[in-house]
Design goal:
alpha/beta
């Protein structure tokens, strides 16, 4: 993330999360932001739980039966002021996954190559629709044309914004 501790602290104060998942590399940022915000979520370092890079097939998940619970709170970039929280419900995310499946023809067992950050709606949507659809995600920390080519992208669905496509075409490794 490119956010500084005071910016993350503001998001924590606004969202008041009960649980905060973070990667080991972000531990100093998380500690500083939590201290500055005076918000005390349960902090879980995901690296300690997901250290094995193996694939764990879980299959599609069943819909949540409730009054459409809030599933994610993503923040805008704040280009016109402070970042604003966008509440995404279970039905929002399922409708997006279903539209993607109908449009692309993704099936259970297909593979996605993910290079988008998970704090961005594109990266999070890809991850969530894979859980819903029962497809596999090959997660990359960032976009690197050579790494994408080495990962066997021809056997995967790849979510790429235009700038990634341009870098892929211009890269001799791709």
């Amino acid at each position: 993330t490119r956010l500084a501790p005071p910016e993350v602290a503001q998001l924590l104060r606004d969202a008041e999360p009960r649980v905060l998942l973070y990667a080991e590399v972000l531990a100093p940022l998380v500690r500083a932001a939590c201290a500055a915000s005076e918000v005390a979520p349960e902090c879980v370092e995901v690296g300690e739980h997901f250290a094995d890079p193996g694939v764990v097939p879980i299959g599609p998940i069943k819909p949540v039966r409730s009054s459409d619970p809030l599933v994610a709170l993503l923040y805008t970039a704040g280009t016109t002021g402070r970042p604003k929280g966008v509440m995404l419900s279970d039905s929002n995310l399922r409708a997006s996954a279903e539209a993607s499946r109908r449009h692309l023809g993704v099936r259970e067992g297909d593979r996605w190559l993910a290079c988008l950050p998970l704090f961005h709606v594109g990266g999070l949507s890809l991850l969530l629709r894979s859980v819903i659809d029962g497809s596999c995600v090959v997660l990359h920390e960032r976009f690197d044309a050579a790494a994408v080519a080495a990962a066997g992208a021809e056997d995967c669905w790849v979510a790429r914004p235009p700038c990634f496509v341009a870098k892929s075409v211009m890269s001799p490794a791709a």
